[in-house]
Design a protein that fits this description.
Blueprint (H helix, E strand, L loop, with lengths): L2 E3 L2 E13 L10 E14 L3 E15 L1 H10 L6 E16 L6 E13 L3 E7 L2 E9 L9 E13 L4 E14 L4 E6 L9 H5 L3 E6 L1 E15 L3 E3 L1 H6 L16 E4 L4 E3 L1 H4 L3 E5 L9 E8 L7 E8 L4 E3 L11 E9 L16 E5 L2 E3 L3 E2 L9 E3 L2 E5 L11 E6 L4 E5 L9 E3 L4 E5 L8 E7 L4 E8 L6 E3 L1
Parallel strand pairs: 16-22, 24-26, 25-32
Antiparallel strand pairs: 1-14, 2-3, 2-13, 3-4, 4-5, 5-6, 6-9, 7-8, 8-11, 9-10, 10-13, 11-12, 15-17, 17-20, 18-19, 18-21, 21-22, 23-33, 26-30, 27-28, 27-31, 29-30, 31-32
Length: 470
């Protein structure tokens, strides 16, 4: 039964810290800490999914500017201030690994920053002198910022439904409105605060439309719906399960050697070993019965030898079993002695193979020459030759046979394409039917392309068909 995995749904909880890539306030004002608490819901049907993330962020500044003011006056506000922001993100989630589940989460979001304006003034008599004014957003959250970036997660499974992960991300926060502006006096070299000293200092302004962050963190993942269920289509196609070891089709052994309708020489038959392929699927404890028959005519085949082989796939005929030259024989095997063979059809008998004991004919294959020279070799109605396969690396290969008057009697434009009069019988061996050529005439064979040429001179002689090995 084929099964498939449901889409994976993850719920992630994470915490991270970050450092700014760009200043969000003047050089005297440093971002001391950025903390983010996020919840992310992801849906991953295969390798690509989608994620929805909500983040609550806290920014804390620890500024040398206010520390300097406190040092000079001792009566100003705290040197720390806190901002808050909320963002909602969405983006594709790309799953790049299996064991540790490397994921990329390109995201874009919208949100707002909560930070009241901060104004510091120096008062002396009826005079007020502005020292610092920080204009950010209102005290209430509003959709005033867009946030975009990418996170990379490495997930570490803990159990089937729980995992941990570490991640790093790079993101940019861009103000949609006027942004963040700061007006302040340059007090870097002041030794004391007075109305006169402050008036001598320039009133500077710093604007910030966007800032970028590099954050790293850790998290916990809860995994839902990571179960397997049968595929509906596979349930229709698969037959119902039967009892153990009977739930799949079985095939009997198959004869391997000698091949069917082959000829075995008188010399080989004296030490002939017959081989077969095991039943499929393989049954570990199967033994085999071997049967050898002398092929009959009207009366049928006669059993001349039978034996049992223990867990082997071959059998050497005994020396006292003499097979007769010119006779034909039939053999088969049967797998036995294992209860798992019960579903095997035909009582696990193999099909029958036949072979003949006799003279083996050895066809003569001629080597081609690189020049049109040499003797005229005799050949019967089949011309057999060996062709160097490197010739095909030089492009299309053409074959021509011409007679003594240089008349073309056979022309094959592309030797790689099929032709009725020629066939390939091995890696580099070919046979051409020349039965229609005139007997006792001489011919020239040429096989060539733009890089190579091979030649053979031959004469058709019906008495030169084969060379028997006796």
């Amino acid at each position: 039964m084929i099964s498939k995995t449901k889409a994976q749904i993850n719920l992630d909880f994470s915490i991270s810290n970050a450092l700014p890539f760009h200043e969000i306030t003047p050089s005297e004002f440093k971002l001391n800490q950025f903390s983010s608490y996020s919840t992310r819901l992801t849906y991953i049907p295969k390798k690509i999914g989608v994620g929805l993330q909500f983040s609550m962020n806290t920014y804390e500044t620890n500024t040398s500017y206010f520390e300097k003011l406190n040092e000079l006056s001792g009566s100003l506000d705290s040197s720390r201030e806190t901002w808050k922001s909320n963002f909602l993100f969405i983006g594709p989630l790309l799953k790049l690994g299996n064991r540790f589940n490397l994921e990329l989460f390109p995201k874009i979001g919208i949100g707002g920053i909560q930070s009241p304006d901060r104004i510091l003034k120096y008062e002396t008599g009826n005079e007020e002198i502005l020292i610092y004014q920080d204009n950010t957003q209102s005290e209430n959250f509003s959709f005033s910022n867009i946030f975009y970036g990418v996170d990379a997660n490495i997930n570490i499974p803990i159990s089937k439904n729980i995992g941990a992960f570490i991640f790093a991300g790079f993101s940019t926060n861009k103000y949609l409105g006027d942004g963040h502006s700061t007006i302040y006096r340059d007090i870097s070299s002041l030794e004391e605060i007075s109305a006169e000293s402050l008036k001598q200092r320039d009133l500077l302004k710093k604007d910030c439309d966007a800032y970028s962050l590099l954050n790293t963190g850790i998290g916990i993942r809860i995994v839902f719906n990571q179960k397997e269920e049968p595929s509906p289509s596979s349930e229709r196609k698969q037959p119902p399960l039967k009892e153990k070891n009977h739930n799949q089709e079985m095939y009997p052994p198959i004869p391997k050697y000698p091949e069917n309708e082959s000829t075995i020489s008188k010399e080989e038959v004296e030490t002939l070993t017959l081989e077969w392929f095991k039943e499929s699927p393989n049954v570990r404890k199967a033994n085999y019965q071997f049967f050898l028959y002398e092929k009959g005519t009207d009366t049928g085949d006669s059993l001349i030898h039978q034996t049992k082989i223990k867990r082997k796939k071959s059998y050497e005929l005994p020396e006292d079993l003499k097979l007769i030259n010119g006779k034909e024989y039939v053999w088969k095997v049967r797998a036995v002695d294992d209860p798992n063979l019960k579903p095997c059809p035909d009582d696990c008998y193999s099909i029958k193979y036949e072979f003949k004991v006799g003279n083996i004919v050895i066809p003569q294959y001629y080597q081609l020459l690189t020049s049109n020279s040499g003797n005229y070799v005799p050949t019967g109605s089949i011309l057999r030759f060996v062709l160097n396969q490197n010739i095909f690396s030089g492009g299309k290969v053409e074959l021509k046979i011409v007679n003594e008057e240089q008349q073309v009697v056979l022309n094959i434009k592309d030797l790689k394409k099929e032709a009725k009069s020629i066939r390939k019988v091995g890696y580099d061996r070919y046979e051409i039917d020349i039965g229609k050529l005139n007997t006792n005439e001489i011919y020239h064979l040429k096989i060539f392309n733009i890089k190579r040429s091979y030649f053979l001179r031959f004469k058709v002689n019906p008495n030169a068909e084969i060379n028997p090995r006796k």
